[in-house]
Target: DUF4138 domain-containing protein
Amino acid sequence: MAQHVLVYTKEPSLLNILLDEVNYPTESLVQLEGGDSGGVVHRQARTIAVKDRTFSGKRDKKHNVSMELKGLYLHNDLFYMQIELSNKSNISFTLDQFRIFVQDKRTAKRTASQQVEINPIHVEGDLGYIPANATQTAVYVLQKFNIPDKKLLHLQVMEKDGGRHLHLKLRNKDLLKGRRP
Model:
């Protein structure tokens, strides 16, 4: 795999450049916390995407569309969440939002609730569009974290221009079940 650094110039001296095959180092230019490079994270996520189920019991289903957490892995202080979206209806599913956030378990009436968004550092696979009667799997890679007591990790999928919204809730106890890939 070759990597190239491109610099934009408004008026370049050459318009066409021939790139010969050069042996570049295989390490990625991106370094993540925990010592993994972007290339290592990408390869690990691709491997996890095709694994069989190792995690059970976390699933939500509405109107023949379901979301399931199939696997939870921990490698070099990174969480790899293997998520499967299955559409068994005759209507395609277009994703509007996929949110990952931490929120209080219960909130009393008229009490402010705080949601802390967690952004994935890498996503392998595309859940943006799921055709009718199809299934797709994606792996979301997150920095390592713990959830305090009385809080939950929420995985939320919202359909664009539709009402088939799916929601999974995970406790810290669930995160501790993460395996090595």
